[in-house]
Amino acid sequence: MLPKTFSPSPQQGAASPELGRRATVAAEVQPAQNEYTLIIDRKEEKELLYRGGYKDVRDGTTYLNACAQTRVPWPPRAKKQWPKMISRETQKSELRNRVKQTVREAYTQMQLIYNNDGDAIPTVVIDNSFDNYRIPGPYEDSNAWEEKRRLAAIVIQKYLRRKIAQLAAHRMRRYAIERRQFWKEHERRKEEERKAMLQWELERRINPRTRADFEVLYQELENWRFQENAKIHCNRAANRHDKTHAFKELLTKELKLLQALDTLRRKAAKLNRQDRIANTLTKMGSPKLWEMSNGRIVHVQTPATNRASDLGQLYKELTKQVDSMDTRMGVLGYVKWMVQVFHTPLIREILLLIEREADLMFRGRPASSLNGLRQRILNLFLQFVETPEFNPEAVSFLYVPVDFDHGKNRFPMMRDMPAEFP
Predict the structure, then answer these.
(1) What is the Cα–Cα distance from 205 to 212, expressed in whole angstroms?
(2) What are phi and psi of 399, to 5 degrees?
(3) I need a labelling partner for 198 at 20 to 30 A (CA). Which of 9, 98, 141, 182 fits?
(4) Is 248 helix (H, G, I), strand (E, B) or coil?
(5) Could you tell me which residues come within 8 angstroms of residue 370 by beta carbon, excluding any fewer than 6 positions away?
(6) Mind listing the pLDDT tens digit for each residue in 28-46?
(7) Sorted alphabetically, which InterPro entries does this protein's record hold (predicted)?
């Protein structure tokens, strides 16, 4: 509102800086009616450029955008000065500039316009079928937002703790199941081991093979004899004649048990000898294991291992039960062909025994009468196989070295020889 004694400037008709440099302002005051009249002469004012807005077709009034109603922000080549955005012309408390505006922002579309008579005339058709009506909700301040976040965090923690508890319970159940299975497997394994140990103890007493097995049998026999002897001594109802008869029966039983143990010992020695020979022949004929530079192990067959394998196969054929004369003659012929290339007393004896067995088989002698002859041939052929002269691989399996000077001084120590021999 202007004051009653309004003066436009120190001199009447000065140009207002907000209305333009060429606009003339004059004021008329009527104190009686309390009215003020402000006259603005814009004839000399330069018309502003059209920079966006709309025009009323009824009276031709042009409405410019607020940003277009301000003056030129700064003169060319002058210091940058932003225009005043709050003025009576703009009636805006805040104005934001945009670097670039779209075409739609520069124009205004109206579905209906009104003529001078006040009638509505449709100009354009605006589709409002996809329009949405938004109803604002209650105002949410920062405290309400923080409370909502706190409640949401509580819900998240609740479900997270529930999931953690479920996983822990599942882990505990699985651990309990695994422990139960472990103890069941442990008990089953212990039961199997107990049964296997019982079977092994029974087997070593029925068919003893090692020295430890026979020591256990002799120890049990001694314990049994001691217990039976104590029973006879403690029997007060028996007289001297009855005790003597009981001691004789105990001695007879002990002798029979000792004879049975000796029979088992001879049988075990025979079986152990056969197993030892079979293992030795298998090791002789097995290929060599060589380690390459890259660490890989290769199996190498040498002429010596091949010959040892053939000799071992021949020995196994000689130990088999004779089914037919043709099969036995074939084996004897192959053995004869293998050993006849050498000329030693052992070879001559083997050839003589082979010819004798062939002659007896052609005569039709029973097999029981040839068991001793066949056993002699088998033993002599085993000596042939274990001789390094005929089987080079046998050197590694000799119990005594061939060189009897091995590990000894080659020259005898004399009494006057110095301590350090050069």
Answers:
(1) 11
(2) -80, -30
(3) 182
(4) helix
(5) 357, 360, 361
(6) 656 656 666 666 666 666 6
(7) IQUB, IQUB_helical
3-state secondary structure of 92: coil
pTM above 0.85, yes or no: no
Q: Who's near 225: CB < 8 A, 6+ residues apart?
A: 250, 254
In angstroms, the CA 323 to CA 335 distance is 18
Short-list 357, 354, 351, CA closest to 370: 357
pLDDT digits (tens, 9 = 90+) for 383-403: 999 988 898 888 888 776 555
Secondary element (H or E) of residue 251? helix 240-285
Q: Torsion angle of alpha carbons 72, 75, 79, 83, nearest 10°? A: -10
Q: Amino acid letter at 94?
A: E
Residue listed under structure tokens 């907000």: 18
- The long-range contacts involving 214-222, CB below 8 angstroms and separated by at least 24 positions, are 214/261, 214/264, 214/265, 214/268, 217/261, 217/264, 218/261, 221/254, 221/257, 221/258, 221/261
End-to-end CA distance of the chain, in Å? 137
- A 10 A CB-CB count for 46 gives 10
Largest CA distance in the chain: 176
Mean pLDDT along residues 198-210:
91
Cα dihedral across residues 148, 153, 158, 163: positive or negative: positive
